């Protein structure tokens, strides 16, 4: 057993070293309790435990075969771990890709079975979507989910209460690049992201692995974060 542990640590060290000294890297892991909390200064309190200059990278709307693998490669090239908030429909359609995200060491949360604005849906439809999302998560990933992000960040009292009853953490955001808007260059995305981070001092970053422009811009965005001295914190739940 000791030999296996040593071998695993050595392999981890080789993987980190393979990124080179100029890699952005992951500075540390922040582990949260599985509880009915809500984080992200856009709608709630700032995530506890972060200090100025630290960012948590998060991605929404995947998995998508045309773009998610490019995001995963960019993160791996820079030894960066992130959190992916996935939708239930693509989760079932692309189960192997979802497991690839998890197996790469990233954290996987929920983002609604469908990408609907649940604040505009009847209560029964909201609760049915949550049930479908949780079932897909369990079936595909074989785990219990710990966190949920509302599509469009459109929180509803019905789902907030349901998530609280299930001890699921709600994740909002602190900064982003508005990468759902079309026809943006990597420089445009970087300027928006760095501008918002400068106002906040760091925090939870919202990006979308289902967007082609974001996937192609990821190497540039990670380099931009490195150049500005930001440190990546990997978020996990115990």
UniProtKB/TrEMBL annotation:
Superkingdom as given in the UniProt entry: Bacteria
Organism ancestry: Bacteria, Pseudomonadati, Pseudomonadota, Betaproteobacteria, Burkholderiales
Signal peptide from the UniProt entry: 1-17
GO MF annotations, alphabetized: hydrolase activity
Alphabetic keyword roster: Hydrolase, Metal-binding, Signal
Enzyme Commission identifier(s): 3.-.-.-
Gene3D superfamilies documented for this protein: Glycoside hydrolase/deacetylase (3.20.20.370)
Top EC class of this enzyme: hydrolase
InterPro entries tied to this protein: Glyco_hydro/deAcase_b/a-brl (IPR011330), NODB_dom (IPR002509), Polysacc_deacetylase_ArnD (IPR050248)
Listed Pfam families: Polysacc_deac_1
Name under which the protein is recorded: Polysaccharide deacetylase family protein
Domain NodB homology: 53-233
């Amino acid at each position: 057993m000791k030999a296996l542990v040593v071998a695993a640590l050595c392999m981890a060290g080789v993987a980190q070293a393979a990124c080179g000294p100029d890699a952005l890297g992951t500075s540390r892991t922040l582990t949260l309790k599985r509880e009915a909390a809500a984080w992200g200064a856009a709608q709630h309190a700032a995530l506890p435990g972060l200090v100025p200059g630290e960012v948590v990278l998060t991605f929404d709307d995947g998995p998508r075969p045309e773009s998610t693998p490019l995001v995963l490669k960019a993160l791996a090239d820079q030894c960066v771990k992130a959190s992916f908030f996935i939708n239930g429909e693509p989760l079932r359609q692309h189960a192997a890709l979802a497991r690839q995200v998890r197996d790469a060491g990233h954290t996987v949360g929920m983002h609604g079975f469908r990408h609907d604005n649940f604040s505009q849906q009847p209560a029964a439809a909201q609760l049915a979507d949550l049930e479908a999302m949780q079932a897909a998560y369990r079936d595909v990933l074989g785990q219990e989910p710990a966190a949920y992000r509302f599509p469009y960040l459109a929180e509803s009292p019905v789902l907030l209460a349901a998530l609280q009853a299930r001890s699921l953490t709600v994740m909002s955001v602190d900064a982003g690049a508005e990468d759902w808007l079309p026809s943006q260059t990597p420089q445009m995305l970087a300027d928006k992201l760095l501008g918002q981070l400068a106002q906040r001092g760091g925090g939870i970053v919202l990006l979308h692995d289902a967007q082609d422009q974001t996937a192609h811009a990821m190497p540039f965005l990670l380099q931009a974060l490195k150049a500005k001295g930001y440190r990546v914190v990997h978020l996990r739940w115990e």
